[in-house]
TrEMBL record:
<keyword id="KW-0560">Oxidoreductase</keyword>
<comment type="similarity">
    <text>Belongs to the short-chain dehydrogenases/reductases (SDR) family.</text>
</comment>
<protein>
    <submittedName>
        <fullName>SDR family oxidoreductase</fullName>
    </submittedName>
</protein>
<feature type="region of interest" description="Disordered">
    <location>
        <begin position="1"/>
        <end position="35"/>
    </location>
</feature>
<dbReference type="Pfam" id="PF13561">
    <property type="entry name" value="adh_short_C2"/>
</dbReference>
<dbReference type="InterPro" id="IPR002347">
    <property type="entry name" value="SDR_fam"/>
</dbReference>
<feature type="compositionally biased region" description="Basic and acidic residues">
    <location>
        <begin position="1"/>
        <end position="30"/>
    </location>
</feature>
<dbReference type="InterPro" id="IPR036291">
    <property type="entry name" value="NAD(P)-bd_dom_sf"/>
</dbReference>
Amino acid sequence: MTEKDKIQSQEPKKDYYIDDESKNMDREPIVESENYKPAGKLKDKVTLITGGDSGIGAATAILYAKEGAKVAFTYYSSDNDAQRTKERLEELGSDVMTFKGDVGDESFAQKVISDVTSHWGNIDVLVNHAGEQMYQESILDITAEQIDRTYRTNIFSMFYFTKAAFPYLNEGASIITTSSITAYKGNPNLIDYSGTNGAIVSFTRSLSQNKEIIDKKIRVNSVAPGPIWTPLIPATFPEEALAGWGKSGALGRPGEAYELAPAYVYLASDDSSYVTGQTIHVNGGEVING
């Protein structure tokens, strides 16, 4: 392959969107920007992203590939999204592994870690990103089954994947969680989801102070998205709730998935070598204390 071919193979497709689950969107979520300039910050790093098939997870996987990483990701159900993302990562020259399953099942987490480490050895970056939310007008409508499902996907999975991965995390590795603006300001129609994100923030802070983590010089941080236009949004909110959605911040608009991904690169790379136990707020100008 010539140098020109290498450059051309890394150019983003202008029409690269994840839209398998977003047919009722007025516009498609954008997971890749033409303006990003990679610098080899994750060259040869082994990275694992839960929920990496679409939205923020796919945007992060793409930047990791551009930065030279090997990328494994999990997904729950959308084979089309997973295949599309996998093909894009391979176009960028990345080695890729994909895993379909339920992150809320500990045996799935153990199998993913086992397969990744058997294939690539140890792990350098673990991104606990997979999550789900369900809109309810009344707390009376939140069933025990919904609570169990939300907590199992959003917070139990972080324990499962972190526990399974810990023996294989290299010294100086990075663990990144995805929390949410709802952990700080709440949401009256996403009560159980907001609760899980409060737990994620505490999980992140506590894990960063754990002696075993510190002894291995592992950094643990979180990214807290504000209103980001992903397939999850129209799948969650009723149409009437989307009219002014995401416009309360200083920038007056919802964000795109690709605008989150550089934060995950920063936390995965040596650029953040003195950062642990912290949360980066990428929310379009909502001032959040804490």
